[in-house]
Amino acid sequence: MTIQRGDRVPEATVTRIRQGVEKIDTPTLFQAHKVVMFGVPGAFTPTCSERHLPGYIEHFAEFRKRGIEVYCISVNDAFVMKAWGDAVGVPEGLQMLADGSGDLTKALGLDIDLSGNGMGLRSRRYALYAEDGVVEALWLEAPGEFKVSSAEHVLAQLSS
Questions:
Q1: Which of 3, 36, 43, 48 is catalytic?
Q2: CATH (domain of 103)
Q3: Which of 97, 100, 125, 147 could form a disulfide with 141 if both were Cys (CB 3.0 to 4.6 A apart)?
Q4: Domain range enclosing 74
Q5: Active site annotation includes 72
Q6: What global pTM score does this model have?
Q7: Taking residues 134-139, what's their average pLDDT?
Q8: Whole-angstrom Cα distance, residue 16 to residue 114?
């Protein structure tokens, strides 16, 4: 079942690279924070690299002014996420999280089987806003679309 408004972000462990590979659990990432986490089907894929992540890079300072942490997550390994972040110039503080086995993605109910496209298990495209680990909003894209999970749309929704 897909996570809903009012649900707590499920416990899972993801990885990131800072001074080496770090495992970090979702309570640590979400507890006592305001967070926008956006999920993408894959690092270095066209829409993800040309529109989705760049929008969050462009508007990162605005999220931070509002006291909101920004996390990008994909069912890729930490090395791919780090290389992708470096390639597109992710600012310090925008966390590139790897859900290599898809554990968090599955627990959120946001997984999709893209085996027909040669990609295997991946994440649906989405953005969620959580405060203190509780989901306050979820913007889930229809397959093949990129509208409601954009940084611009999320900022507009958080302003209203």
A1: 48
A2: 3.40.30.10
A3: 125
A4: 13-159
A5: no
A6: 0.94
A7: 98
A8: 24
